[in-house]
Amino acid sequence: GIAERYVCELESQIDLACAAATLALEDAGLDPGTVDLIVGGCGVPYQPLPASAPLVMQRLGLADGSAAAFDVNSTCLGFLTAFETAGRMIEAGQCG
Fold this sequence. Notes:
40% of the residues lie in helices and 10% in strands. By secondary structure, it is of the alpha+beta class.
């Protein structure tokens, strides 16, 4: 991505996140209803509001309030910060 960047016109980052989440759940043999936390982390948000994680939550069919969903936006470190945040919440027994 330094010299050239590509744009996918027909897929959004929400589409890609939902596809990845669906595959991960299938690979783990888990039902989407077992998810209790979705943390989004990216350098460039899909849109200001609502955040990406609630959009993913809705598409996965979890919009019934059974899962928490929020984004962590910290520029290039968004993914790492989101991963760290989720890990700390799991360690604290707040989810997972």
